[in-house]
Design brief:
Helices cover 37% and strands 21% of the residues. It has 7 helices and 12 strands. The strands form 4 sheets. The chain has a 4-stranded parallel beta sheet, with helices on both faces. The protein has a 3-stranded antiparallel beta sheet with strand order 4-6-5. Strands 9-10-11 form a 3-stranded antiparallel beta sheet, with no helix packed on it. β10 and β11 form a beta hairpin. α1 packs parallel to α6. The longest helix has 24 residues. The protein starts with a strand and ends in a 7-residue tail after the last helix.
């Protein structure tokens, strides 16, 4: 088997990478030592948050995702049809509260810094916060509403991305552990699994918390 790109990891990041690469016309193979969406993507809450990130690269990425997910969710639904489970994308918003005087000003300052970076932020009175979430601790000293916060079902979203990727020609090889690379000098020419060798010149490591371990197998240092 040959592929322009081999993606190692069939979680939501690997699935998204494979789909995006295939939609540019590249041939892609996804390899995972387990089943798709069976590791980190099966254990997350599916939160798509801007509320918990300070200005910087991580917030920039979260903002990009916040703008992209509504269109992606609609595109996947249109492509896969009503017979495929709903990924349950919901831009429900989030509320962050402080319940001490010591915590109130840092929360307001954090939110103001986020607002300056482009995050949608609304400072709430205690009554407004309780109207949004009646089960909050009523001893509210500061509250901030983040309407861009969203949530989805991560396993279904991963499977939807992989289903879309397969329609673009991506091959998904489950239960195949990567055991090394094939090289021609410094040039990558293949990825070896326990079952076969896949000819390729490019590798994406998308193995979540195991990415450092996978990179070490490939001869690279990735401090994860």
């Amino acid at each position: 088997m040959n592929a322009d790109v081999v993606v190692i990891g069939a979680g939501i990041v690997g699935a998204a990478c494979a789909r995006a690469l295939a939609r540019t016309g590249l041939s892609v193979a996804v390899v995972d030592r387990g089943a798709p969406a069976s590791a980190t993507s099966a254990r997350g809450e599916g939160n798509l948050l801007v509320s918990d990130k300070a200005p910087g690269p991580e917030l920039d990425l979260a903002m990009l995702a916040a703008g992209h997910w509504p269109h992606l969710a609609a595109s996947l639904a249109d492509q896969l049809g009503p017979g495929f489970p709903d990924i349950e994308y919901d831009r429900k918003g989030g509320v962050v509260v402080a319940t001490t005087e010591e915590g109130a000003e840092p929360l307001r300052a954090f939110a103001n810094g986020q607002a300056a970076a482009g995050v949608e932020v609304a400072h709430l009175t205690p009554g407004e916060a309780l109207s949004l979430e009646p089960h909050l601790n009523p001893a509210i000293t500061a509250a901030v509403h983040y309407p861009q916060d969203a949530q989805l079902q991560p396993v279904v979203a991963t499977e939807a991305l992989l289903a879309s990727a397969r329609r673009a020609g991506v091959r998904v090889l489950a239960h195949q552990e990567v055991i090394g690379l094939v090289r021609d000098g410094e040039r990558i020419t293949g990825v070896r699994t326990a079952a076969e060798t896949i000819g390729t010149s490019a590798v994406v490591v998308a193995a979540g918390p195991w990415s450092g371990e996978v990179a070490a197998v490939l001869g690279a240092d990735l401090p994860v």
